[in-house]
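Trying the structure run again after the queue cleared.
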Amino acid sequence: MKNSTIPILISFLFYSFHISAQDNEARTAAMDMEQARRDMKDKMNNIFSKYGKDSAMSYMQAQRTIEAENKARERLEQYAGITFTDDVKELDLSHSRLTELPDFVFRFRNLEKLNLSNNQISKLPKKLNGLAKLKYIDLSSNGLDKAKLKTVKLKGVKTINFSSNNLVKLPRSVKKIRNLTTLTLTHNQFTSIPKNLRKLKSLKTLEINRNNLVSFGVNFKYVAKLTSMEAIWAGNSNITKLPDQIVFLPHLKKLYLQENKVASVSAEIGKLTQLEELSLYKNEVTELPGELFNCTNLVELDLFYNKLKRLPDGISKLQKLPNLYLAYNELEYLPEEIGNTNLSRIYVHDNKLTSLPESIKNLSELEIIRFDNNYIAEFPGQLFDLNNIKYIDFSNTDVTILPNQIEKFDHLELLVFDGFRIDMNNPLNKDYNLLMKTLSNKGVTLNVSSSEQQASTE
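Done. Tokens:
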């Protein structure tokens, strides 16, 4: 062997030994996982033998944990066998019983997403900065309420998920991750907006669903300083009022407050002129300010399940709004100016309407209209001026006459109504059976409930 080849051979052997050591680490971790799975199974068997199998929920949760850890063990083994690490952009180390990051993680130089959920990791080491393309870290369900998160400045990370950690405060060290654009704090124990959010100057999206934000407005002034904020998700969080400071978010585009206890909406909301999506689904809103319709960029407005009795003037300003979500309220009428919009879908079922606006005939793009579960006594003739309708539901209304003109809807696909409510003794319904046959031959799906079906639901 020539002397010149000896250094090359030594380098090759060293590299092979290094990679082998990394692989062994992953395999060791996988073996530890297998042992942990066996321990969990033995523990569950002992519990059941002592206390019985009465708790189906505990059993199912244990089974899900075992299955998740089995899959984690398989993933660790797969990662150990990867030769071309540069091709890997995502690692899933969830449910792996980790307390720190394994060294083999740092082999994946092009890593973009790192899932560390359902572990006990409380430290993000400096070596992560060696993964220059890393943008996303999932630290959900890591018991961070019991351990202080330690981290270094992570320049490239844009998104961190801290869901399900029982947090009452945001870890102080998060301020070191200055380039964060998305922060997820869902399913924790926050009662107000964390103060140290103000340090995250680049933050654009805050997800803080499923908390107990009874003091939502108390620290909102700190969010108001984040002028780059574009989206806030704060559903299922016991919010009773929109904070006044929300108007200081000039670039806010999405505001989701579904399933809260908001009873009123301030006129100040009209200043959010960039707002595109607003959800107040399942709240307690009784009245809307007319200023809301100054948000002319709205493309989604969800008001399902509230207590609205009327709509204010100005809805015709929402020229970009395609869908009207007003079902499950207490509306007694709809404004005529609805006909001056560009709506393609109208959901006003489960209200107290006795008629529909005449102007609906102007909605040339209307495809879906549901006005079932209202007090409407006559099929709205103004719909016959619309040729793009695909779906009509007027079940559980007081309509007793089915007009023959329905067959003129060229694009109708689905028609839902109560057959038992149609007055077959009325001469205007003499062609009812022929109409049903004609519609069926045209390919229309007829969902016609009978009196027997009605009785079975009562």
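The radius of gyration is 30 Å. Worth checking whether this holds up in the mutant runs.
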